[in-house]
């Protein structure tokens, strides 16, 4: 047998380092045994390290257990190897073995590697426990451990915990700063990511490197801060990072997302030898700016150059941002993915299902989702968001519950989508449950989640809770302000909306067209004519916005609701653009309120010409004739609807009791407590008549096709829901209902009387706004 010499050891270490295949490692291992180095820790440790590189984890495990007394270095290599090979449980088991069965003490590398493994585990408590171990062992302030902890908490979306670890570190290095910037960006805390980068620069920029610049650019792109991105580009140029391929690639993505695709092209050409990642960024840049032909051309060039495209190439090519008109292209890409085997990739599946969802091809999207063997969090999110965006809220909620049962932990994107579904459906109980989930997951700091919570509470009738959450937010985006202003408008709180708009301007947040639309909507529902006109003029002259059809419609609505119908008509005639259905529809709605049949004819003629398939305009005109007791004309309009077979959505009302939704339709007798509900209605009718209530039979004949007359033993769905609420809830508690159509005059009057005779507060959300009934008075002031 050969002598064991340092030269022999060095030879084996060199052979292990240079091995290109697992077979070479196996042959070298045989020689190691022959030459008596099988228990030499430095040689065995290097072999274990290289086996992990080739994903030969079973081999590495057997090698480890062949060593009588492994040292800490070997333990660390094995723990890290299993972690890097996506075997976190095995990694953590070796850590446990180290603590329980040896006299060795874990060091900062041990904790860093095992924390990395814990970040991939479903059980988040393991990471917290390991954090405690690290602190007890004296490594709580270690930079290596700190970076691993920050990464772990960000992967769990525990932003506050990550921030706390970062802030408590006495010293910070480049890796820690970059982990913080990147982690905040990945958790959609874009503004926070930018601020941390700013702190890094303000602290002298000693630790700033090219990775720091590349990490912050996606966050800047998300908030569309073009000027700031240009400043970061200049900083990178000054520090000598501009020729780094991944910095240039980051800039290509940044300018593309900011709509500056020409600048992105120039930067792409600056890359001497664009790699696949750079090409993917440019393909994605073209696609997200609607330049489909350019993205396809670059994709074909890649294929022609024999470059092997990957899943990121395909995701960039899929027209997620401009899907309309590209169903055929999406089908072709789908076919290419099937042929090339890329379709099983979760990112590709998610992108394809997103496009199908946006094209309202929900069956195709769900088929893709169901066929995927391993459903990623992103694929769950895409499917839930697709259902929500297409108004299929019950399916969205059902899928979310299925996701919970599958033990898939939601992230801020999931929560934002499901809160949107709750808002649409008015599911306050589920919304509150999700709010508790947000607290338990430490998602409150996420601006999208907080904004979605505000929207949910506002649309579920609790405007006070919405405002409290708004005030608690330290950072607010333009969308956050818009959501709160819109919420006030929905509840008829016009003055509060105007005050908040003023605060928004003073805060330095630039309003958008949506902001002005929300403020004008609020003015409309509160009868604030002068204020609405001032806002409209300011939008044009002070802020330089060109009004859209929706802004014009809001102004017509403001004037019309206030009874200034002739002025509204003059406003329409003075428009520089051809008024569309939204504008004429607003005028027709105002004619309904003020019973102006002459102007109603003018508006309806335009509407029947512009939007002939919309049955709602025919119903409104019929109602106007009915209110004027011109039943012949009303019947004529209704005959037109029947002859043309125009269908309208049936009226229905939802009430949630004890977390369970109950839906009623007109004359509904299918509810298990139907007998008790109708008995309650009879009782209410008696009390209401004594209080002076008279049924509004004129509009009851024409408001809704399915809801004819109380005299025919049919009652509107909202009355049934309120009666059930009175039976099923404790005396004195608030009753909340949601109607899918505009509440009719008779039901509005009846609800005022019901709130008076029962002493209950009744909150009604109809298709237009909220009505808060209390003591016989409605918050809308009969102005809806």
UniProtKB/TrEMBL annotation:
<dbReference type="Pfam" id="PF13041">
    <property type="entry name" value="PPR_2"/>
</dbReference>
<dbReference type="Pfam" id="PF01535">
    <property type="entry name" value="PPR"/>
</dbReference>
<dbReference type="InterPro" id="IPR046848">
    <property type="entry name" value="E_motif"/>
</dbReference>
<dbReference type="InterPro" id="IPR002885">
    <property type="entry name" value="PPR_rpt"/>
</dbReference>
<dbReference type="Pfam" id="PF20431">
    <property type="entry name" value="E_motif"/>
</dbReference>
<keyword id="KW-0677">Repeat</keyword>
<dbReference type="GO" id="GO:0009451">
    <property type="term" value="P:RNA modification"/>
</dbReference>
<feature type="repeat" description="PPR">
    <location>
        <begin position="173"/>
        <end position="207"/>
    </location>
</feature>
<feature type="repeat" description="PPR">
    <location>
        <begin position="477"/>
        <end position="511"/>
    </location>
</feature>
<dbReference type="GO" id="GO:0010467">
    <property type="term" value="P:gene expression"/>
</dbReference>
<feature type="repeat" description="PPR">
    <location>
        <begin position="275"/>
        <end position="309"/>
    </location>
</feature>
<comment type="similarity">
    <text>Belongs to the PPR family. PCMP-H subfamily.</text>
</comment>
<feature type="repeat" description="PPR">
    <location>
        <begin position="446"/>
        <end position="476"/>
    </location>
</feature>
<dbReference type="GO" id="GO:0016071">
    <property type="term" value="P:mRNA metabolic process"/>
</dbReference>
<dbReference type="InterPro" id="IPR011990">
    <property type="entry name" value="TPR-like_helical_dom_sf"/>
</dbReference>
<dbReference type="InterPro" id="IPR046960">
    <property type="entry name" value="PPR_At4g14850-like_plant"/>
</dbReference>
<dbReference type="GO" id="GO:0003723">
    <property type="term" value="F:RNA binding"/>
</dbReference>
<feature type="repeat" description="PPR">
    <location>
        <begin position="376"/>
        <end position="410"/>
    </location>
</feature>
<dbReference type="Pfam" id="PF14432">
    <property type="entry name" value="DYW_deaminase"/>
</dbReference>
<dbReference type="GO" id="GO:0008270">
    <property type="term" value="F:zinc ion binding"/>
</dbReference>
<feature type="domain" description="DYW">
    <location>
        <begin position="692"/>
        <end position="784"/>
    </location>
</feature>
<dbReference type="InterPro" id="IPR032867">
    <property type="entry name" value="DYW_dom"/>
</dbReference>
<protein>
    <recommendedName>
        <fullName>DYW domain-containing protein</fullName>
    </recommendedName>
</protein>
